[in-house]
Amino acid sequence: MAEGATSILRFEHVHVAFGGVDALVDLSFEAVEGESRVILGAAGSGKTVLLKAALGLVRPDSGKVFAFGRDLTTMSEQELFDIRSRIGMLFQEGALFDSLNIEENVAYPLLNQKSIHCPPEQVHPRVVEALEFVELGSTLEKFPSELSGGMRRRAAIARAVVTEPPLVLYDSPTAGLDPITAHTIIALLIKERDVSQTTTLLVTHRYQDGNLIANFRYNSKQGILEPAQNGNGRGARTTFMVLKEGRLVFEGDQDSLELSNDLYISKFVKQRE
Amino acid sequence: MDTIGVGSLQIVAITGFFSGAVMALQMYHALASYGQMGKTGQLVSITLVRELGPVLTALMVAGRNASGIASELGSMKVTEQIDAMRALGTDPVQKLVTPRLIATAVMLPLLVVIADFVGMFGGWVISHFNLGLPSKQYWTTVWQALDWTDICQGLLKPLVFAIVISLIGCYYGLRTTGGTQGVGRSTTQAVVAATVLTFVLDLLITKIFVSQAT
Q: For B150-194, what is each residue's pLDDT tens digit?
């Protein structure tokens, strides 16, 4: 990472437990501005809890979570709303509101986040823009139940990024999707990252997702993904983390990850073979 | 309000009608032992306004709406919609609990008033057509039996029940865990808790009113 880069998200010795079962154990890391962070781990390793702690949805039993320099662990729910307006979140199954159509779902953060201040006449154009970004411009009137799994996930991405947050968290965006749709979703994540220059945290159990994030960039002129050729070695802006039973067992670049002899870590890397 | 009020109207009216009819039938024969059949309307009226109207209506609404609220919010909880709401800058209590509390608190007393009148009508149908009581006598005793404390008791109870029913539905819904199985569990717990608490609170409120009257 570049020296002196601005810290966007920092965990300091965070410990979270539910009913005596540890979900996160002594977790510390720091994500800086413009960085992509791929968090790998098996089911139940604490990946989702990590993202929820980053949003202040889960309060740590001990340790501190800093987002944009502010300590989330000492803030009230009302104070957290301000921080959350600067963080986009894609939930695992999309978490679109069943009772609202797609337009209302995507407009929800613009209308409800007090610190966004979006004039009413700009809500519709921004919603349309966000939906066209994820290639769902024709689904405004549809309800989530009328869309396929991949389309729901894309609509949820539109809702997560419609406020143009500087930090976006993605919770298993490709889980349960076929390979082609999964590739489309990851391509959208890369497009969002490169067009809006956002800091990205991607939780996944698929190494392929992290590999794409680390090694491809969006060519805005041609509108396609292309291999990253930045001269700084592959995946220079991407850090990989591996969680095991709530503990951080690896943090580093893709080369180090692939060279690891750890049996648990190498299982994720071998997935692509 | 539409779901809780208008949606419950049919079941509440049916329950009220048959409660009043059964009360008239039972009370007529009980009063016949003392030769006081003419007071059938009085007993139907007092029983409905003070007890059966509020309690039976609350039980219907508990079965219909506490379960509905718990399952709706429970489904939202297990599909992370509640977390999404918080992440998108909304307080779920303000957005989900408050409207349901207000809707139930407004609609349940109104439903009780309707159930009371329909029940009195049911009592009249049995008294007039089956038992041969004069209509004027029935309605006069129904009207004269009630005083302001009965009306207060009959409206305070559903207000308290409404608060309890809606909050219990929301409470069990918002603390749902464990997927669809958890939603079913929350729904059952909400109905059981709301039903039991309705009876307990009914006893407490009745005790307060009875103590003040003596």
A: 899 999 999 999 999 999 999 999 999 988 899 999 999 999 999
Residues 6+ apart with CB under 8 A from A221: none
Provide the phi-psi class of A38: left if phi over 0, else alpha when psi is between -120 and 50, else beta: beta
Which of B76, B85, B88 is the best residue to mutate to test the A interface, defined by the most A CB atoms within 10 Å of its own CB? B88
Number of structural domains, chain A?
Answer: 1
Q: Give me the residue label for tokens 């894309």.
A: A154
Which residues of chain A does B68 touch, with a Cβ-Cβ cutoff of 8 Å? Answer: none
Alpha-carbon gap: B191 to the closest alpha carbon of chain A (Å): 24
Q: Which of residues 52-81 of B touch A (CB under 8 A)?
A: 75-76, 79-81
Hey, which residues does A87 pair with through a beta bridge? A167
Report residue A118 as tokens: 């979006």
Chain centre distance of CA A157: 10
- Residue B127, both tokens: 């008294």
pLDDT at A3: 57
Q: What is the DSSP letter of B62?
A: I
What's the ipTM? 0.86
Question: How far lies A94's CA from each of A46, A64, A192, in Å?
Answer: 19, 27, 17
Tell me A56's DSSP state.
Answer: T
pTM for the full model? Answer: 0.84
Could you tell me if residue A169 is inside a domain?
no
Q: Do B84 and A84 touch (CB under 8 A)?
A: no
Q: Classify residue A157: in a domain, yes or no.
A: yes
Of A87, A91, A115, the CB nearest to B80: A91
Q: Which residues of A touch B87 (CB under 8 A)?
A: 55, 57, 84, 87, 89, 91
- The verdict on residue A120 lying in a domain is yes
Within a domain: residue A137?
yes
